[in-house]
């Protein structure tokens, strides 16, 4: 940890990811759109003062505000630009040399008669080298001139942002005869003089002229693509302009994926209370542990002084009380949450932008799949979608989704469409699993509901508090929670129809189908009535859970994207259990699911459907159009996979214990990745070890998986304590939980009021 301001890294260091993507050292750059640039620079006056290279930077900067601007007009004169809609003024002032004229203009800004610009970008040197044929006298005069200008720039830097742009290297082989005297050796000498003088001037001053040296690094990689050997290609100029925009605007706009130049967010009231709670839990656990240890030592076996025989203690091992288990769990959770906060809220660890290449996605996929096949074992049972098989399914899907996120593969549409199917498959399992449980067991008690809701939501609620994020931010958990409640309501509402009741009278099967048709009708209505959907979830306190950025549109979009797949999972479970009950399928070890002929036909159709969907998804050209079709067609590939996985008896009888292990903690992996594997709320990558990308991924992945596993254990332990089976105790706990959330809503309202 070098400390300091990430702005210094942004202005001075970085590297290229690929050909055109610039990655600053230690932080992430946001790609500003026109409307964002206008909102940041509203009522601002920006001045670029210098030579033709500064003029190029001026045009690239202006195009971030208005892309329609053309590079025309007097090249060796002043160029004004104004955006009246946002009251933005950007001026280019032609001063190709650092001389008395430039000094006089800068001095006028320090005097009260002329309004100071909010941002000043200055730089020049190549004209001095060219006009004076690279003489040493010209360099000496340049030092004198910049020495006289430095105090004026320092004075301006007290109230404005002042940047001095160092000279980029040239491509000497491409320079015209009139520019042959502009050598990289001369440019380095001028840059050294500027750095030394500006740094010495600001050494004892709080206000500091920021040296824009990163342009040199960019130019070293791209100057050979220059048209004349002197001026940078357009992509490099655009990168420099975007860096300038990030330096100034990130602290104002606070974009999630722009960590450069962003100060650490202040702790909220809720975060402070959470910190106090975890601290007290750690202290409490240490005190109880010490007391138990002392008691254990006192009860240790000792020698009887009269008989000389050894007595056995009354207590052989210390009993772990509920309070101690509770404090132990919160103690571990507190330490883990500290790591979460340090990774993604404190400016302690570095963050980098994602950069997608086919190899960064497909090579890890192949490696993980080979590893999963290597750990093949026999299943304990051979039923369709048995527990080991569903854990395996969740596991490999989760690993693929993790690789998808860290590689930035969402930019590649065919991969995006296949990942959408994996997310839909999770929801399919939600429909299948919960429907099967309620239909077979007929258990609609409050204990079951509370257990499921606690296990799904515990980690997310803690992260909402510690990381100061809304519940909807972790969109998948609200999605599975709401669908679980929909499944429960569908089956629990009168008349309660379960398998035991339906076996006595076949008419109950039609009653259940009628319920499912009503559910499908409601889903269809809400998916095409955004207004009705938003009204339902805009009521307080539901709005506090499902709003993101002040509205519930994101929630509606996420829900709509996979709106039918849970219903498909419920329907599949109903049909499968009916076939199983009437012994129309064979689930013996090694036996095909149907007769040999039927199995072969269904297997062939499933493979064709699976491949057909993949071909369609790979040929997608428009994400919006494909997303519209996805809810209706994703079930094709999901059902095809289920049948391919279960029809052959030998395939159904084995599973990958490697994938199944990850499947048991898939929910924790999905949520934890937001902050301790990825960074900046999934927009970037966490960097624990800079300079060694592969080693960094190995270390951060190891910690990330261990933390997810530990949180899974903590959640299971706390679920037994917080959600007891005894109804009277459970009612008391529910009242305490209601009080906790009421307090949370109150503190949240206080926070919102203080922010406004």
Automatic annotation (TrEMBL):
Instruction: Say yes or no: keyword Transferase present.
Output: yes
Q: Which residues cross the membrane?
A: 269-291, 355-375, 395-416, 446-466, 473-495, 507-526, 561-579, 599-617, 659-680, 692-711, 731-750
Topology term for the membrane: Multi-pass membrane protein
Q: Which GO terms describe its molecular function?
A: N-acetylneuraminate 9-O-acetyltransferase activity
Q: Which GO terms describe its biological process?
A: carbohydrate metabolic process
Q: Where in the cell is it found?
A: Membrane
Instruction: Report if keyword RNA-binding is assigned.
Output: no
Alphabetic keyword roster: Glycoprotein, Membrane, Transferase, Transmembrane, Transmembrane helix
Ranges for domain Cas1p 10 TM acyl transferase come to 253-734
Which InterPro entries does the UniProt record give?
A: Cas1_AcylTrans_dom, NXPE4_C
* Domain NXPE C-terminal residues, every copy: 22-92
Give a Gene Ontology cellular component term annotated to this protein: Golgi membrane
Q: Look up the domain of life of the source.
A: Eukaryota
As for family, the record states: Belongs to the PC-esterase family. CASD1 subfamily.
Q: What is this protein called?
A: CAS1 domain-containing protein 1
Name the species this protein comes from.
Opisthocomus hoazin
């Amino acid at each position: 940890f070098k400390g300091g301001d990430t702005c210094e890294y942004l202005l001075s260091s970085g590297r290229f990811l690929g050909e055109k993507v610039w990655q600053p050292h230690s932080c992430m750059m946001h790609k500003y759109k026109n409307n964002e640039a206008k909102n940041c620079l509203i009522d601002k006056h920006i001045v670029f003062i210098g030579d033709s290279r500064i003029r190029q930077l001026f045009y690239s900067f202006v195009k971030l505000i208005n892309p329609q601007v053309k590079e025309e007009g007097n090249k060796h004169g002043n160029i004004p630009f104004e955006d009246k809609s946002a009251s933005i003024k950007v001026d280019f002032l032609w001063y190709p040399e650092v001389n008395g004229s430039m000094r006089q203009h800068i001095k006028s800004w320090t005097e009260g008669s002329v309004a100071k610009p909010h941002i000043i970008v200055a730089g020049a040197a190549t004209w001095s080298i060219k006009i004076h044929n690279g003489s040493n006298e010209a360099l000496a005069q340049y030092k004198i001139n910049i020495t006289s200008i430095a105090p004026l720039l320092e004075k301006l830097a007290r109230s404005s942002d002042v940047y001095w742009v160092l000279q980029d290297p040239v491509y000497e082989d491409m320079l015209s005869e009139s520019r042959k005297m502009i050598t990289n050796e001369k440019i380095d000498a001028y840059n050294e003089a500027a750095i030394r003088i500006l740094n010495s001037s600001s050494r004892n001053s709080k206000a500091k002229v920021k040296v824009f040296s990163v342009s040199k690094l960019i130019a070293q990689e791209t100057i050979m693509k220059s048209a004349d050997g002197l001026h940078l290609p357009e992509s490099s100029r655009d990168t420099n302009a975007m860096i300038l925009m990030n330096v100034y605007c990130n602290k104002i706009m606070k974009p999630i994926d722009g960590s450069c130049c962003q100060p650490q967010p202040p702790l909220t009231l809720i975060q402070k209370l959470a910190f106090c709670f975890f601290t007290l839990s750690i202290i409490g656990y240490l005190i109880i542990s010490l007391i138990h240890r002392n008691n254990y030592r006192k009860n240790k076996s000792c020698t009887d002084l009269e008989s000389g025989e050894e007595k056995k203690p009354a207590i052989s091992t210390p009993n772990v009380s509920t309070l101690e288990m509770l404090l132990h769990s919160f103690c571990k959770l507190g330490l883990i949450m500290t790591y979460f906060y340090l990774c993604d809220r404190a400016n302690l660890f570095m963050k980098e932008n994602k950069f997608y290449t086919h190899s960064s996605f497909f090579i890890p996929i192949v490696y993980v799949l080979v590893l999963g096949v290597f750990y093949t074992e026999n299943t304990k049972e051979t039923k369709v979608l048995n527990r080991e098989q569903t854990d395996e399914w969740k596991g490999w899907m989760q690993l693929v989704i993790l690789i998808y996120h860290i590689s930035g593969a969402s930019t590649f549409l065919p991969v995006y469409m296949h990942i959408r199917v994996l997310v839909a498959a999770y929801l399919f399992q939600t429909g299948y699993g919960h429907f099967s449980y309620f239909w077979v067991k007929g258990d609609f008690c409050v204990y079951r509901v509370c257990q499921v809701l606690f296990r799904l939501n515990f980690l997310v609620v803690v992260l909402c508090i510690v990381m100061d994020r809304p519940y909807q931010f972790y969109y998948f958990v609200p999605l599975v929670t709401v669908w679980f409640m929909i499944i429960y309501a569908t089956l629990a509402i009168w008349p309660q129809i379960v398998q035991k009741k339906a076996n006595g009278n076949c008419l109950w099967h039609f009653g259940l189908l009628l319920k499912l048709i009503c559910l499908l009708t409601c889903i269809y209505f809400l998916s095409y009535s955004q207004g009705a959907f938003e009204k339902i979830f805009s009521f307080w306190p539901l709005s506090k859970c499902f709003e993101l950025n002040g509205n519930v549109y994101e929630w509606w979009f996420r829900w709509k994207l996979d709106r039918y797949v849970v219903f498909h999972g419920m329907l599949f479970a109903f049909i499968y259990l009916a076939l199983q009950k009437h012994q129309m399928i064979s689930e013996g070890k090694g036996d095909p699911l149907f007769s040999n002929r039927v199995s072969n036909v269904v297997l062939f159709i499933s493979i064709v459907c699976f491949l057909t969907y993949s071909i369609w998804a790979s040929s997608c050209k428009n994400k919006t159009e494909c997303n519209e079709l996805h809810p209706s067609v994703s079930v094709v590939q999901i059902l095809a996979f289920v049948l391919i996985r279960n029809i052959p008896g030998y395939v159904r009888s084995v599973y990958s214990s490697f994938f199944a292990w990850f499947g048991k903690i898939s929910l924790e992996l999905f949520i934890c990745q937001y902050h301790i594997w990825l960074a900046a709320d999934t927009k970037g990558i966490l960097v624990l070890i800079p300079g060694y990308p592969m080693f960094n991924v190995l270390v951060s992945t190891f910690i990330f998986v261990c933390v997810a596993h530990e949180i899974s254990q903590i959640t299971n332990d706390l679920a037994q304590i917080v959600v007891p089976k005894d109804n009277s105790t459970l009612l008391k706990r529910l009242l305490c939980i209601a009080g906790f959330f009421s307090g949370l809503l109150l503190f949240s309202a206080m926070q919102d009021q203080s922010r406004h």
